[in-house]
Amino acid sequence: MTDKIDIKSDTNPVKIQPAKSTSHPHKSGRNRIYVRAVKGLYQTVRRRMGLVFMAAFMCLPWIPYNGKQAILFDLPNQEFNIFSLTLWPQDLMLLAWIFIIAAFALFFVTTFIGRVWCGYMCPQTVWTFIFIWFEEKIEGTRHQRMKLDAQPMSKQKFFKKALKHTCWILFSLHTSLTFVGYFTNIADLYIDFFTFNTGFWIGFWVLFFTACTYGNAGWMREIMCTHICPYARFQAAMFDKDTYTVSYDANRGESRGPRSRKADPAKLGLGDCIDCNLCVQVCPTGIDIRNGLQYECINCGACIDACDGVMDKMGYKKGLIRYTTERILEGGKSHILRGKLVGYGLVLVVMTSLFANALVTRKPFDLDIIRDRNQLYRENFDGHIENTFTLKILNKSQQDVIYHLSADELAEEYNWLGDKTVLVHAGDVANVPVSLVVAPEHLHEKKTNFYFVITMKPDDAEPITLYEESRFFNRLR
Prior knowledge:
By secondary structure, this protein is of the alpha+beta class. Among the domains are: about 40-85 and about 120-220, no CATH class; about 365-475, Immunoglobulins (Immunoglobulin-like), CATH 2.60.40.10.
């Protein structure tokens, strides 16, 4: 073969910003990251958001509603109570809608502003920073913690370490009890646990989630974000040049180097970065944002607050590290409204609308029809055709309800043998045996489609009616 494929050579070199050194002064010999405390706008926002969601998580199981726990996911009884709403396995589609909406909301937010879910709202991040707060209060600042770990064991070191781990374990236990409290009565759970009266499985799950919280937030920390969490791996598929991420402005910052406050960086041939490494020391995942976009970055903004503080002290303009896009850093103009973002937004709106419609149109009761399995029909002594059914009525509400039963589109005349008015207790299922009898002259086909009609008449409200299709079988002609 003589045909050749022309290969175009790219003479433009790829610009890579290397790290200044291969050592990691912010890590110890066992690769532990010592996170430095930092104050600033984004850390204030993160802390307040974490406080709100933490308070919601801790308080919601304790809220009473109509004499019951407001939020209780009763797995043994397959009953999920959320204030006045009770969900059953038949409502599994609503749960599917919630997961779909959450997924597309994550896609939408990630495409627009990167991995902010991880940095501000992810439980792993929130609990990790809480554990770091315990470290700071007990063992001191970053340098003090590093110095303490380098010292041989002493009474003071043992006391601080023991106190820290005790606080971690107690907070993990409180977290675990709260979480399990969403699935069982939380007041009884606390009493039974501390009086050693819990059942085996409840005690097992409390201890299991305590160990998981203690291990994840106390020891694994960034390992969960960088190696275990799948979101870190597929987030790049949602990024583009117009995604706002925490980025370092290399055009402005390079070449980096130390200098005095009064020195003119232009005369020294330096950029605005003074190479203080504070952006690395405050990073909870231990990366250097100056090396470019990295999948380990959780977009928490800690490096932005640290760098802005340094820029302010040096008298430089803030924003050397900031939320920006790759296109802006290249000197272009970013486009917020773009195909992928609009597509995710439209799908999110459609899914949310469908979920809202399913929730609004959801009936507070359900009807299942079971035919007599022994025979499709039988002929009684009068020569009339009789079909037998068992009606299973599920009361999905939290109140006792009286239901009215009837048949529609069956025949001009029919006899109903069985109860037509049924009381069903809250969250209960009633089995109602029913026989329908029709004279042969009123049946024109060997199989007639009709509807069972169940009506609920709430006080001071419009009746709610549900139609369930069934079939009435006739003898062969």
